[in-house]
Every structure is written in C-alpha cells, then in structure tokens.
Please model this.
Amino acid sequence: MGKRDYYEVLGVSKSASLDEIKKAYRKLALKFHPDRNPNDKAAEQQFKEAAEAYEVLSDPEKKKTYDQFGHSGMKGAFGGHGFDMSDFYQAHGSEFRDIFDFFAGGGSGGSIFDAFFGGHGGSRYRSAHRGESLQFELGITFEEAVSGTKKEIEFSRLDLCPECGGTGAAKGYSRKKCPQCGGRGQVGSSQGFFSVTTTCPRCKGTGQVVEKPCRFCNGNGLVEKPHKIKVNIPAGVDTGIRLKSEGEGSMGSDGGPRGDLYVRVRVKPHHLFERNGDDIILKAPIDISTAALGGEIDIPTLEGKVSLKIPSGTQSGKVFRLKGKGVRNIHGYGIGDMFVKILVETPARMNSKQKKIFEELKENLSLSNFPDRSAFVKSSEINGWK
Model:
C-alpha cells in the first residue's frame, strides 16, 4: 500500500497552523506510544507515521515541496535514506520531551526505543548518548543560490578533552558506579497509574560518576573547539532550506557518535531580481514613448541579456513571461520562468520645449486613446458619481 496523505495522518487541513499541527502530532504520539501499546505493531507503525508527517508539515520548505509534488517530492528530503526515527528524536526530542521521557522505562524492555535508539531494557538512553546536533546560519548571495557554490564555514563544537581523552577523570583516577541510580542511569517513581522514569540527576544518565574530575574539562570529558568544514550548496537553494552534514556536530559522551550539523541557508536580496519559488520577477521601467509606440528593450536574465519586444500601447503593470529563464529546481523538477513586470515611467524635470511637445500631443489626443480612462469615466457617470 502507498503512503497515506500527511494531512490525513495528522487529521489537519492544509491551512492548519504550526500550532495546530503540533497539537495534532502530540495527541497521536501519546495515543500510539509503544509503551501504551506493548507488542502492537500497528500502533508502532502509526507512531512512526505520525512522526514522519509532523517532520514534513512542521518544516516550511518540506511542506511547500510536499504540497506541490506530494510524496514524490520527498525523495531526498530525509538525507537520501528515508525517514529515520533516530534523526527525528535528535531534532525534536527536546521539543516533545514530555512524551519521550514520560514513558521512558514504563514498559517492559524491547519497545520501539530499543529498535530506534539502540537501548536495552531499563537503560534505553544510556546507549544513545549521541552528540548534540548543531545549527549554523549561512548567508549567500542570490547568484550563489542560483548556480550553487561551495563555502567554508567555521563554528564551535564539543570534542574529546585532550587532557583526559574523554573520560572526565583526572590522571590517576577513574569512574565508579553512580550510588544514586546504581549504575542504571535512571531513577523512577510512581505517580498513580503510571511509573515515571527520569534521567538520574547525579550522573546525568551515564550510570557513572567521576571520583576526581579533570581540571581541563571539569569532568565533562568534552571541551568546545573551533572547527572548519566545506559545505556544498546545491543550485536552486532558497532562504530557509536546511542542509544536513552528517556527523559534523558535537561529540557524544561515553563514546557516543557525533551529532549532525544543520546549515540553514539565508539568501541575500538581489538589487534587480525577486524570487518566487523557482520563478523570478523583474520590474522593468520603460519610457512613455516606447510604451505608446512599441519597441524592444534589453532584459537582464541569469544567463545574460535578452531582447524583449514591447507592443504599442503597452500599459504599466503588463507582465511578460520568459519561459525557462528562472531558477533550476533544487529537487530536479526543471527550471522556473521569469516574469517581467512593465512600469511605464512618466518623464520628470522636463524643459520648456518638451512641455510644449506634450501640450501639443494632449490637444491631439482624445478619451478614445485611453480605454481604461474611458471605461472609468463611463462607469462614474452611470453610477451618478461626479
């Protein structure tokens, strides 16, 4: 069977706000959470299906692509490997911590978190100490966004402490089992019907404490360091698009893998071109003579200048379409168009000779030469307006 429509999955309309989408996902996540539905594969699938729908509809760029192309437009939207619950947890775990943490440990081992995050029974989070994923905002020019480019960026991330090698312990000392949680990394308490399990406040979920902390990292095992990488910016990116660099985030604790780096693109405005999706809008001023008599004007495009024929009697606001002169679609769905909006410019700062010519022209023109003005006057007379 094919995938269900994401709006149908969450039970929201296409005009739903982000807050409505979030509320709908939260409701479904609580309903189909694996610890509420042990050994229920259907509920497990619906739990994952709701997460995938939220991942797309809560992201403006992914939502825009989905609205235009449906599921076929989502190819490559999840890093080329399809939707992954572990990526979802890393991106939204803190956002929905009340859902993930409330049920953590409530069931009897082997739940969906074991499969998605590699946990084992009551210590699900201990083996999932992946590093923090980072975000970096990158400003690029309009031309770079259109043609694609490669940028070197510098940011800070957590790396292994060079003093203790990541153990967090001073030289000559080691870690020992946490006395508060007995090495489980979690502490539990009962609240009515539910058994609530939370991360141990003393060992922060590691199950171990440091006898004497490293003076360089204060026992964290990690220190912040500057890091440089080169990022490939594909042709067709636009403001708000988020590019994922796997494994370029902060180092995980206790030997956990690195998080990812998300580069959010911000395209600087262009002095001539305005972008609308894959299309480009250009406002082109022309003189009143060319508008009245017709002629040809040079139009700048992304590929150089082209000639545009202006018919006689062209009015201000007239839009011409130049097919295939827009931006290449980032997902490979062809090239957009350019729309040229004509702005007829009235002459300013005229000398006496020029004014005389216009006065003579005015005497030789009648209302029939101005169809829009004529229609306006007739409509005013019909409705009794003066």
